[in-house]
Specification:
Elements lengths: L23 H7 L1 E13 L2 E14 L12 H23 L7 E8 L5 H8 L2 H11 L6 E6 L5 E8 L10 E6 L8 E9 L28
């Protein structure tokens, strides 16, 4: 495997730097093996097509070989912000900037030699989530999926509205093909975004729903 993890961390400013090109130093710092972007368009009559995209980073598991009590915090603080930057730079490039993004989601899949907590550590803390939210112009909690995966799987990442999580029209999923990843000693981290809702969304909205309780079961029409 072509990992080249830098042993001595160096301070760099990524706040205004694009990671779309010339990111070899970043890849070496976090053990990045590859990064990929997938995109699809859903045509709409009378409107611009809905564009959905995923960006996936595959890194060597930084906690490989540690026990169930190992502290994950230090590597999380170092690696997760870099992943957030790498992934959101690619989503923004694919979708035309933060103003075009309406929905977002995230995912992490760990190889079989790691723990589920290793995947969680890279996406369920402010070191990843807050940076993704800020970059994509969102305020909602980011919906997610995490788990184990083997190379070649097709996974689904849930998304919802980036500023109005109760907006049911934007509850949707996007598929990503994990080609050649994750290997047993790797983690695949995914950020996803969409420029619009589900096509033909028409099932109402949580903020305007009528109150519904189990009382309706007393008069169900069969």
């Amino acid at each position: 495997m072509n990992y080249s993890i830098r042993n001595t961390p160096q301070a760099v400013d990524l706040s205004t730097r694009s990671t779309l090109n010339g990111y070899g130093d970043i890849a070496a710092a976090v053990g990045l093996r590859k990064i990929s972007t997938q995109q699809e368009e859903l045509p709409r009559e009378g409107s611009a097509p809905i564009v959905r995209a995923t960006a996936t980073a595959v890194i060597r598991n930084p906690w490989l070989g540690t026990d169930n009590h190992a502290d994950l915090q230090l590597a999380t603080q170092r690696v997760a912000p870099v992943l957030a930057k790498l992934l959101t730079d690619r989503l923004l490039d694919a979708l035309g900037g933060a103003d075009s993004v309406e929905a977002f989601g995230k995912a992490a899949f760990v190889g079989i030699s790691g723990q589920l907590e290793h995947a969680a550590a890279l996406v369920h803390t402010p070191y990843f989530g807050n940076l993704v939210r800020e970059a994509l112009g969102g305020t909602s909690i980011i919906c997610f999926v995490d788990g184990r995966a083997e190379a070649g799987e097709l996974v689904r990442i849930p998304m919802w509205h980036k500023t109005a999580a109760a907006t049911r029209s934007h509850y949707q999923t996007v598929e990503a093909h994990l080609s050649d990843a994750p290997h047993p000693d790797e983690i695949a981290i995914i950020a996803a975004a969409s420029t619009g809702p589900r096509p033909f969304a028409r099932i109402g909205d949580r903020t305007t729903d009528q109150p519904v309780t189990s009382a309706i079961l007393k008069e169900i029409a069969l």
